[in-house]
Specification:
single chain; alpha+beta; conserved putative lor/sdh protein from methanococcus maripaludis s2 fold; Elongation Factor Tu (Ef-tu), domain 3; OB fold (Dihydrolipoamide Acetyltransferase, E2P); 3 domains; 6-stranded antiparallel beta barrel; 4-stranded antiparallel beta sheet; 3 helices; 17% helix; elongated
Length: 313
């Protein structure tokens, strides 16, 4: 009986020692095991952070991307709708019936000229077209000859923009292409027209070719002589995935964007890009149509991502 009691005591002691050893090994293993690594592609912002950051997103969508050629230009009268009013005989101006910016109709008598050949009867100078007086070059009493234009009339509702295209780019310009332009007077507005004629010579000094763009000016805001920043659409790439270039951030492995997975949770995506024009870029890889891409505030997400990477190191 005593022997059995001794054996039982020994067994219990060994079991307790073994369990204690196992427990220590498990504790050590837990200490040595690395913490679960977070996905370095995910950036999460707290509710408080979101309240202090102005983040904006836009949906990546397929569309057309216009490739444009930029050039300097100037607004010009449409010379096909412009006419000079001149005397057919030498004489003296007796009366002027119109002034700058006066609207006139075809057949309106604009001036009377006294000429020796027409004794006692003045020569009537009539408007040859409908339009607006853009120039008045004579005063009453002045002598006028057959080479002098007393008035210039033009239709202000149809104008030209004459763009100076560099010699190396002229092959890309074709008749009928869409064009847009801005002027200093209306910097926030874009005006539109079409290419209607290409020049036939290269200017010696500037090495440019003049391209004529026809523009509707029904509201009369554009004035001949205005300088214009012109963009001619030379290529239209259809049905491509397009995002704003504000979404792009540069990192060591290229260009990235952040896609919103859910409110406050964003995923870093490395993107492969194609054509770029007028604030938009074509995305070939990295984003799918319908996904929300962060535009304004993407730099904040990049900063949070880099901060997390530094803390992990």
């Amino acid at each position: 009986m005593k022997s059995s009691l001794i054996k039982c005591t020994i067994v219990l002691a060994v079991a307790a020692f073994t369990l204690a050893g196992c427990s220590k090994k498990e504790d050590a293993a837990e200490k040595e095991a690395p913490a679960e690594k977070q996905d370095d592609k995910i950036v999460t912002l707290t509710k408080e952070q979101l309240e202090h950051v102005d983040l904006k997103t836009e949906v990546a969508a397929t569309g057309d991307l216009d490739i444009t050629l930029k050039a300097a230009g100037r607004v010009s009268p449409n010379m096909n709708k412009t006419a000079k009013v001149a005397s057919t005989l030498d004489g003296r101006i007796a009366k002027l019936n119109a002034d700058i910016n006066d609207p006139v109709k075809t057949g309106d008598v604009l001036a009377l000229v006294q000429v020796p050949e027409l004794i006692g009867k003045p020569l009537e100078l009539k408007a040859p077209i409908d339009g607006v007086v853009t120039e008045r070059n004579q005063a009453v009493g002045e002598l006028v000859d057959k080479t002098s234009a007393v008035y210039v009339i033009s239709d202000p509702t149809d104008l030209w923009v004459l763009a100076e295209i560099k010699e190396r780019d002229i092959a890309a310009v074709k008749l009928g292409q869409d064009a847009s332009f801005t002027v200093v007077a209306y910097p926030e507005e874009t005006f539109r027209g079409k290419v209607v004629r290409l020049g036939n010579k290269v200017e010696d000094q500037s090495r440019t070719v003049e391209v004529r763009i026809e523009v509707n000016n029904a509201d009369g805001r554009l004035k001949p002589g205005m300088f214009a920043d012109v963009a001619i659409v030379t290529t239209v790439t259809k049905d491509v995935l397009v995002i704003s270039d504000h979404a792009l951030q540069s990192v060591e492995d290229g260009q990235i964007v952040f896609v919103e997975l859910e409110p406050g949770k964003f995923e870093k995506r490395v993107v492969k890009l194609g054509l770029a024009q007028q604030g938009h870029v074509q995305v070939i890889e990295g984003v799918k149509a319908g996904e929300k891409v962060v535009t304004d505030g993407s730099f904040v997400l990049k900063s949070e991502m880099l901060k997390s990477e530094m803390e992990a190191d």
